[in-house]
Amino acid sequence: MGSEQICIGCVILYTGQGKFHDSTRDTLDFVVKQSKDTIYNLNNVLDILATSKGIGVDQFSLPSSMKNNIDRVDEMISRAAKSLDFETQNNEKDIKDVLNSVRLALIIVAAVMLLLALLGFLLSIFGLQVLVYILVVLGWILVTATFTLCAIFLTLHNVMGDTCVAMDEWVQNPMAHTALDDILPCIDNATAQETLFQTKDVTFQLVDMVNKIIKNVANIDPPPFPGVLNYNQSGPLVPVLCNPLNADKTDRKCHVGELDVSNAAQVWKAYVCQVSAKDICTNVGRLTPTMYDQMSAAANVSSGLSHYGPFLAGLMDCSFVRVTFVRVHKDHCPKLTKYSKWVYIGLAMVSAAVMLSLVLWVLYARERRHRKYTKLAVAVS
Ligand SMILES: *[C@@H]1O[C@H](CO)[C@@H](O)[C@H](O)[C@H]1NC(C)=O
Ligand SMILES: *[C@@H]1O[C@H](CO)[C@@H](O)[C@H](O)[C@H]1NC(C)=O
């Protein structure tokens, strides 16, 4: 008696804690992955910017003031990526430690309670009253502990519910700083804004530089004297790149005949000439292989930077955090709240069942002894 209820409670508790552990781990993995993706993208942007500093043809290259700006952004991004990485790893480790301890505690509770149920059942069947009393004292201590654990889990359940609500509220009003900053911090606005501005500036300047080379060097028929502008270029004119930005960094529409940065390298291949040892074209063509390589690299960098444009804009308004929270709220919160509820209900059931059993065992053991005495008394008389 009472033991069945304890067993049922233990089964709910055990199943609940397993599912709770899995869903918290999934949530954690998801948030960590979002953070790692962001760091990965930030590092890609860094790589592209670093490449852009080395691009240049003869007297054409990025202005040196821009190289300093790139260095500054480089440092800001590195710092942001490192701090995001540090906080993510710290949080991940802390949360995993807590989860593992909670899991262990709950499994131990379920196991000890099952053992208690078995012992209590056996002892009261055999009427070993003294042992039953010892078990009862032990049982009370355990019940107090499980009730406390139950209260903790009820609180955890409520905190999870509140956090899920807070995420939803944060998504509606993302600029409000809350405790959620500890879960997944936004990149600070200054860094994001500066990075976005510099990537746009680099894109604009690189395309501008390439177009200047095309218009002022490659497409000019060579002057009679030898020099930078004369490398015996000839043949059809090289098409210019489409600059995706105006000088004021607003979006610009491409004109007809302008090349997209993503396929420019492919198209320019047709305009490359063979060169002598002195870098002079020996057949028809307007681009030396060196020029082609540098121009392709510039187009590649611009293409890479525009690819990361939306990502960088997302960093600025913190939408990567918002996306994460929307997904957590939608995909993870229902499970988290449901299974934390299972755990505290399991704990409550086990506690109540053990309490009930304790009373029953005492009564039963006392009655058996009483019956023994009555039998003895009847035999004597
Ligand atoms: C210059 O290019 C033409 C082809 O356009 C070629 O016939 C000529 O040999 C080249 N001159 C030199 C010095 O290589
Ligand atoms: C273009 O850039 C990517 C990185 O964005 C790099 O992996 C690739 O090698 C570059 N290609 C050329 C031709 O420079």
From TrEMBL:
Q: Does the keyword Membrane apply?
A: yes
Q: Name one GO cellular component term.
A: plasmodesma
Q: Which residues cross the membrane?
A: 104-123, 130-154, 342-365
Quick check: keyword Transmembrane helix in the entry?
yes
Q: What InterPro entries does this protein map onto?
A: DDB_G0292058-like
* Keywords attached to this entry: Membrane, Transmembrane, Transmembrane helix
Q: Which domain of life is it from?
A: Eukaryota
Q: What is this protein called?
A: Uncharacterized protein
Source organism of this protein record:
Mikania micrantha
